[in-house]
Write a structure and sequence with these properties.
This protein is mostly helical. It is built from 19 helices and no strands. Helix 5 (about 115-135) packs antiparallel against helix 8, helix 13 (about 300-315) runs antiparallel to helix 14 (about 320-345) and helix 14 packs parallel to helix 17 (about 385-400).
Length: about 450
C-alpha cells in the first residue's frame, strides 16, 4: 500500500518553474563549473541522492507486502518450530495491512509535530526491530506480532517518504523522483522474490531488515525539508537546508519566497464534514472506486500468494523462479507507466488495463478449471498459461492501476483537501487489501467445496 500524504507541493512533472535554478555569474572552474552547470539545468546531485534515500521507504513497503509469498510455503517445507495452516497463512499475509492502516493515520501527526526527517527516523528503527521479531519467531503468534509491527511502520514510513521527496526536489526533478518512489515500491517486491528463492523464511526476514536499516543510516546525513522549517518559522535553518540541497552556487532567495507564498496560499485545511458536500464527495467517490478496483482486481492476492498459486498450477518451472519473472515484469510495467502516463492519458490506460486484466483472469480461471476436469491435458498442453496470464496481468496492473489512483487523488481534490483525502484513500485501500488477502483462502475453500458437491450430485444423477 502506498500512502501519498500531501503537503501542498506540486507533484506532477512540469509543475513549478526553474526560478530556483538561478546561479551566480562569477567565474568558476573544475568541479564548481560542473556544479554550476548542473544547477542551471535543474539537476542538483545532493537533492537527487537524498530523494533516492527516501525512496528506500517505498521499497520497504513493497517488501512488507510481498514477504509472505515465498516465506509461508518455505515454513512448511523445512524443519521449523511451527507449521502454518491455511487460516494462519491468510493472517500472515494480511495482518500487516491492519498495522499499515493505523500507521498511515498517525503518519501525518508525526510529520507535523516532529518533522519529515525525524518522522522517517522514528519509523525505520522499529521497522528493523519488527523484522528481527519475524526472523526469530518461535511461534505463529510471535510472527503475527512481527508482521503487525512491520505493517505499522510501513504506514508511518511511506507517507513521510513521499512528502520528504516532494519537498526537497527541485520542480524540474519532482515528478521524476516521485515516479522513482513508485518504481522502488515494485523493486521491493522483486527484492523479496529474488532472496526468497535463495533463503529460508527467517533469513529472508533478516535480509528484509537491511533496507530500512540502510535508510536509517543514510537519512541521518540529509537535512530537514525547507518547507517544514518555514512552516515552523525557522527561516535561517530553512535557508541552510536549501543551500545544502541546491549547492552553494545557487541563489535560493527566489525558491524560499516561492515556498513562503505557497504556504500562505494554502490557507485552512478542509474539514472532514466538507467531504459530504457535492464538490468534494463526487471526486472522493471516484477515488474510492479506483482503490476498490485496484485491490479487488486480484493483484494483491498474487503478490501475497504468488508462490502458492504457481505451485498449484503445476508448471515444471520452479515456483520461486516464476515469481522472480513476475516481479521483474512489474518493475518494467512501472517504468513504462512513467513514460506513457502523461502522453496517453489516465482514462485510456485504465480502460486498456481493465480489459487486459479481465482477459488474463479469465484465462487463468479456465486453466484451473481444465486442470480439475482433465489434469493430464492441462499439464501437458497448457502448463505455460498461468505464468503468461499472470505476467501480462501484472504488467497491465503496474502500468495503470498501481500508480494512477494516487495521482488521481492529487489531481481531483483541491490542495486544501488533499491531506484528508489521501488519508481516507489510504485507509480504504488498507481495508480492501485486508479483506481481499484475508478471505481469499476462505473463498477458495468454499468454491472448492461447492464444486465437489456439484460433482457429487452430477454422479448420482
Amino acid at each position: 500500500m502506498v500512502v501519498a500524504m500531501d503537503s501542498g507541493v506540486p507533484t506532477s512533472p512540469g509543475e513549478g518553474d526553474l526560478r530556483n535554478t538561478n546561479f551566480k555569474p562569477e567565474s568558476v572552474s573544475g568541479v564548481q563549473a560542473f556544479e554550476q552547470q548542473s544547477v542551471h539545468m535543474g539537476f542538483t546531485t545532493k537533492a537527487f541522492m537524498a530523494s533516492l534515500v527516501a525512496c528506500l521507504g517505498a521499497m520497504s513497503a513493497g517488501i512488507v507486502m510481498t514477504y509472505a509469498s515465498p516465506a509461508v510455503p518455505n515454513m512448511n517445507s523445512q524443519p521449523n518450530p511451527f507449521r502454518v495452516n491455511k487460516e494462519q497463512q491468510s493472517w500472515i499475509g494480511s495482518i500487516n495491512s491492519l498495522g499499515a492502516l493505523f500507521g498511515a493515520l498517525l503518519s501525518g501527526f508525526l510529520m507535523d509535530f516532529f518533522g519529515r526527517k525525524l518522522g522517517i527516523m522514528l519509523a525505520v528503527v522499529p521497522f528493523v526491530c519488527g523484522w528481527i521479531v519475524v526472523a526469530g519467531s518461535p511461534s505463529v503468534a510471535v510472527l503475527y506480532v512481527g508482521r503487525l509491527i512491520t505493517g505499522f511502520c510501513k504506514g508511518l514510513l511511506v507517507g513521510a517518504s513521499h512528502v520528504y521527496i516532494a519537498e526537497i526536489s527541485p520542480a524540474s526533478q519532482r515528478g521524476m523522483m516521485l515516479t522513482a518512489a513508485s518504481v522502488a515500491n515494485v523493486l521491493g517486491n522483486f527484492y523479496v522474490y529474488c532472496f526468497g528463492f535463495l533463503l529460508p523464511w527467517n533469513w529472508l526476514a533478516v535480509v528484509c531488515a537491511v533496507v530500512p536499516a540502510t535508510m536509517a543510516c543514510l537519512i541521518a546525513f540529509t537535512p530537514e525539508t525547507p518547507r517544514y522549517l518555514l512552516l515552523k518559522e525557522r527561516r535561517f535553518e530553512a535557508e541552510e537546508s536549501l543551500r545544502w540541497l541546491r549547492g552553494p552556487l545557487c541563489n535560493i532567495d527566489a525558491e524560499i519566497e516561492e515556498i513562503e507564498n505557497s504556504i500562505r496560499e494554502l490557507g485552512d485545511r478542509a474539514k472532514l464534514k466538507e467531504f459530504f458536500e457535492p464538490h468534494l464527495l463526487k471526486p472522493l467517490l471516484i477515488i474510492l472506486g479506483l482503490f476498490t478496483i485496484q485491490e479487488f482486481s486480484g493483484n494483491s492476492i498474487f503478490r501475497v500468494y504468488t508462490v502458492s498459486i504457481f505451485q498449484s498450477a503445476g508448471n515444471s518451472m520452479n515456483a520461486n523462479m516464476q515469481s522472480i519473472v513476475l516481479g521483474a515484469v512489474g518493475v518494467l510495467g512501472t517504468l513504462v507507466s512513467s513514460v506513457t502516463i502523461d502522453r496517453v492519458g489516465r482514462r485510456v490506460l485504465l480502460v486498456a488495463s481493465s480489459v487486459s486484466m479481465a482477459l488474463c483472469m479469465t484465462a487463468t480461471g479456465v486453466y484451473f478449471k481444465l486442470k480439475e476436469v482433465d489434469p493430464s491435458y492441462a499439464n501437458e498442453r497448457l502448463s505455460w498459461l498461468p505464468l503468461v496470464s499472470l505476467v501480462v496481468n501484472n504488467f497491465s496492473f503496474a502500468v495503470a492501476y498501481d500508480p494512477i489512483p494516487w495521482m488521481i487523488t492529487s489531481e481531483l481534490l483541491p490542495t486544501r483537501a488533499r491531506g484528508i483525502g489521501n488519508s481516507i484513500g489510504g485507509a480504504w485501500q488498507g481495508i480492501c487489501f485486508f479483506v481481499v488477502t484475508k478471505f481469499f483462502q476462505d473463498l477458495s475453500d468454499v468454491i472448492h467445496i461447492f464444486e465437489i458437491g456439484r460433482a457429487s450430485c452430477r454422479e448420482r444423477v
